[in-house]
Design a protein that fits this description.
Oligomer: single chain
Largest sheet: 4 strands, parallel
Radius of gyration: 13 Å
Distance between the termini: 27 Å
Number of strands: 4
Strand content: 15-25%
Strand order of the largest sheet: 2-1-3-4
Length: 101
């Protein structure tokens, strides 16, 4: 097992993942990426993740779907939700589903 905390980056935009990956690696995280919600859910079911940066708006399986799965898996994963289209309703729903930020 790695001594570095595992960070899961979930975003359908490669350039966003690349930027976040660079920052996270510089901060000492072990970085894994998922380009969609389905990949994120599959990964979460196989392995513990310390922190997940999760995009809300993705095609098919969105960030809320991933949050619901993470919440029901009784994991200690810290989750920060990212979105370019913020709204109070989305923020309230994300916190209700277990997002930390």
């Amino acid at each position: 097992a790695s001594a570095h905390p595992c960070l899961l980056l979930v975003d359908d935009e490669e350039d966003i993942r690349a930027l976040l990956r660079e920052i996270a690696l510089a901060e000492g995280f072990e970085v894994t990426e998922a380009s969609n919600g389905r990949e994120a859910i599959d990964f979460l079911q196989r392995r513990h993740v310390g922190l997940m940066l999760l995009d809300l708006h993705m095609p098919e399986t969105n960030g809320f779907d991933v949050l619901r799965v993470a919440r029901t898996s009784r994991t200690s994963t810290q989750i920060a939700l990212m979105t370019g289209e913020s709204s109070i309703d989305n923020a309230v729903e994300a916190i209700r589903l277990g997002a930390a930020e």
